[in-house]
Amino acid sequence: MSKQIVIDPVSRIEGHAKITIELGDDNLVKDAHLHITEFRGFEKFCEGRPLTEMPGLTGRICGICPVSHLIASAKAGDSILSVRIPPAAEKLRRLMNLGQILQSHALSFFYLSSPDLILGWESDPAKRNVFGVADAEPELARRGIRLRQFGQMVIEALGGRRIHPAWAVPGGVRSALGEDGRAALQERISEARETLAIALKLFKKMVPKLSEEMALFGNFPTLFMGLVADDGSWEHYGGRLAFMDGQGNVIAEGLDPANYREFIGEAVEPYTYLKFPYYKPLGYPGGIYRVGPLARLNICKRIGTPLADAELEEYRAKLGPVANSSLVYHWSRLIEMLAAVEHIERLLADPDIVGGRLRAGAAVNQLRGVGCSEAPRGTLFHDYEVDEDGLIRKVNLLIATGQNNLAMNKTVAQIAQHYVKGPRIPEGILNRIEAGVRSFDPCLSCSTHAYGKMPLLVELVDSSGQILDKVVRD
Amino acid sequence: MPVAPILADLELPAPHLLPGGEELPCLVIGYGNDLRSDDAAGRRVAEMVDSFDLAGVRVVSSHQLTPEMAAEIAAASIVIFIDAMPASGGPRCRLVRLQEAEEAKADSHALTPEILLTLSRRLYGHTPEAWMVGIPAKSFELGQELSATASAGVRLGAEYVRDMLWIKRLVRKG
Questions:
Q1: Which residue in the set A131, A148, A455 is minimally distant from B68, CB to CB?
Q2: Contacts of B106 in chain A (CB under 8 A)
Q3: How far is C-alpha B105 from the geometric centre of its chain's CA atoms?
Q4: Residues A400-437: pLDDT tens digits?
Q5: CB within 8 A of B148, min separation 6: which ones?
Q6: Chain B closest CA to A94's CA: distance in Å?
Q7: ipTM value of the model?
């Protein structure tokens, strides 16, 4: 008789996820699933809206990732207008995207994941939160706050606000950076670099103690996908798509994101609202792939900035040319933050940032456009179809986190298979399962963006519905 | 709106001074989703307070509370949070004195003012006097318009905040 363990959040307003773990008759884990129980509906209610509204509308999908949607949406609009935006506009969009990567990664590392990494997976849950980190490592916590603040300053200096800036538009951007804004940002570069040096040193010291988790938290071969520059460098805004396997073999490269439907399929399952993207040539679910910092560092040849490249070299010397463990997302996030700071510094020195032509004007010239960029969590696609008047007819959004869905499910199963050996729910498993999912830094409308104490109810039930065991954290 | 009840509720500690003898600023943080009807009320109040151009007052209007605000809070002598609050009656604002939280809540996207106050003390050694001004709200549906109740509450709330800050300044002058 099979049994099921259910992990269901007790209460959340936005974005819930539920985990079920199925035991076989031998009380060993057969399978596990991550269920996303929230339905947002953006793809539907954007129909009929003008193309020009889409960056502002889709930015509302999230309060942490609005810039990512803003950029991808504006790029879809560029494609429909059939324009090549002015060089100054592209540099400004790149600058904002780098600010976004920096602030989002800083939130993920310093606030959401550092309690586990610094205080320990089995530490007192009452203290395993941002307050615990503030007590244990106050200087690091303060530096983490200022680092995230710096990323947000970049966004605000360009877009006028830190959250939901309505700034990138089809054809370009609304405004350049002012001289005062540039000076204020330049003053923060050196501190940001220092903070990342400290954080990287701290994390690398932890690596030997994380060997068990590295082996268990989403450690399996998958494909990796992301944007890459023409010269093989790390890319976050332009470039082409590449796929690499878990052994480091490039299996496809130079792919035009506009043709994503040729190589990315989307499966649906009845137990979750989140779709399952997969690499079409390998079918579903064999075409499982991961996106985000882990994937970007795997597929690029180099970052292209000195400090980040030095860190990448050390990372590869330790992990090999391809990192397969999802726990390594944390390390790759730190390196990407350093890359972002170095690229921000270069862009701030560019005269185009404070002047130049900012928009290319045109009317609707294509009835379909795809915008693709790298969000902090991975590759993001906005695919719009419009009518002759530029009103949206159809929208498909391929979200970064969704592309990690297969891998997140497999991660939950891997962790559960290691720790759940019978009908009782072992202590500490809740946090480890959460931590496994959290490595991906998923944006499930905030539901698993939990640090410290995610309210969870775990029930082990048999096929007749009888509860065999229960663990509650409220 | 009578000033006396506000005077009676306020404690007015000695102003915090920077090493150079300057005062720490007063901080006003209005927050909420401006596409959810009355949830925007906190931000509308903050924007109105900003338009008063009060000296020594920094105003923040934000979609949500974020951890980095702890640094700004620690540098302030008083912080006033402004948010929409469900209301069954007329356009009455609520004024609540805030205390630090005893433990962290789980969700970084649902930070409370109390958690920020605690973070401010734990990281920077200072928590200012803190208040919440609640603006009456009737509707949190999708939309950009404020209800009549919230609109009236916004004007009232902005005056509350201005009066609170004004009184603090007058005491300093005395």
A1: A148
A2: 129, 450-455
A3: 20
A4: 888 999 999 899 889 888 887 777 776 667 778 878 88
A5: none
A6: 23
A7: 0.79
